[in-house]
Amino acid sequence: MIVGYARTSTVDQRAGFDAQLKELHAVGCKKVFQEQVSSVGERMHLAAALEFVREGDVLVVTKLDRLARSVADLMAIVQTIDRKCVALRVLNLGMDTQTPTGKLMLTVLGGVAQFEREMMLERQREGVLKAKAAGKYKGRKPISSDRRQSVISLATEGATKANIASQLGIGEATVYRILAAEKSRPVQK
After folding, report:
1. For residue 151, what is the enclosing H or E element?
2. Number of folded domains in the chain?
3. For 33-92, what is each residue's pLDDT tens digit?
4. CA 56 – CA 73 distance, rounded (Å)
5. What local confidence, expressed as pLDDT, does residue 145 receive?
6. 24 closest CA partner among 122, 91, 72
7. Is the CB of residue 34 less than 8 Å from the CB of residue 17?
8. Within this chain, do residues 7 and 90 fall inside the same structural domain, yes or no?
9. What is the CATH number of the domain that holds 58?
10. Looking at the structure, do residues 91 and 149 belong to the same domain, yes or no?
11. Is residue 119 domain-resident?
12. At 92, is the secondary structure helix, strand, or coil?
């Protein structure tokens, strides 16, 4: 069976998400696992896809960075699918691990992808330091006490963190931070 996996980092990337799904269906994916989560977040649908695939299946992704966050992560995923005798196909690279050349390309390109990411992060850190030195970087805006209280109220009512973030127009990470801070506050009598 040909099994697809699509991922974008945010729900704002709808066009990219739709394009991935279209490509995966075009190559004959019978089942597609999809999620919109940062690569550093918990990728439950990727775990489900890796659990689902069986011997002889092919796991297909449109791009390598949709699958793995680092070379180590990529190699762990490859080991998992190799143990299950499952192949990996990366569409934008024309790569298929059913061939020795495909396996070599995967390892080399994974290293290049990690190098690019580390260079991007280094440039980002340098830019932040330069902006701070120029007095242009102020950091994250503080959350108002009204908004903080709204987060706590919605959570108490049983709303999901994603729903709270959506309703209040803030990031999900902000919701987690507010609730964690609230949990660690000493109880006042």
Report:
1. helix 145-156
2. 2
3. 999 887 677 899 999 999 999 999 999 999 988 898 777 788 889 889 999 999 999 999
4. 22
5. 87
6. 91
7. yes
8. yes
9. 3.40.50.1390
10. no
11. no
12. helix
Query: Distance of CA 159 to CAs 113, 143, 167, Å?
Result: 38, 19, 10
Q: pLDDT tens digits for 143-187? A: 888 889 999 999 999 999 999 988 888 888 899 989 988 887 776
Single residue among 44, 75, 102 that ends a domain in this structure? 102
Q: Are strands 95-96 and 87-90 parallel, antiparallel or unpaired?
A: antiparallel
Q: What is the mean pLDDT of residues 11-26?
A: 84
Structural domain including 156 reads: 145-183
Contact between 39 and 65 (Cβ < 8 Å)? yes
Count of CB atoms situated within 10 Å of the CB of 166: 14
Residues contacting 70, CB < 8 A, separation 6+: 114, 117
DSSP code for 147: H
- Which residue numbers are catalytic? 9
Q: Tell me whether residue 156 is in a domain.
A: yes
Region of 135 (left: φ > 0; alpha: ψ -120 to 50; beta: rest) is: left
Look at residue 134 and tell me if it is in a domain: no
Judge if 77 and 9 occupy the same domain: yes
> Is 2 in contact with 60 (CB distance < 8 Å)?
yes
Q: In what order do the strands lie in the sheet with 2-8?
A: 31-36, 2-8, 58-61, 87-90, 95-96
